[in-house]
Amino acid sequence: MDTIFQLTIWLCANPNVLQFANDIYSFINANVTRKWATDYAIKFSKSNNIN
Question: Which domain holds residue 15?
C-alpha cells in the first residue's frame, strides 16, 4: 500500500508524465480503431460486391 501512495504522490508532482502516457494511449487507441474500421469496410465492400 505504501508503494501505491508513493506512486500517487509522485504522479501528482509530475503531471506531465500522466499527460504523456494518456497521449500515447490515445494515439495507439485511435490507430487501432482506424485500422479496424478500414479492415471492416474492405471486408464489407468485398462481401457485398461494392467497388
Answer: 3-49
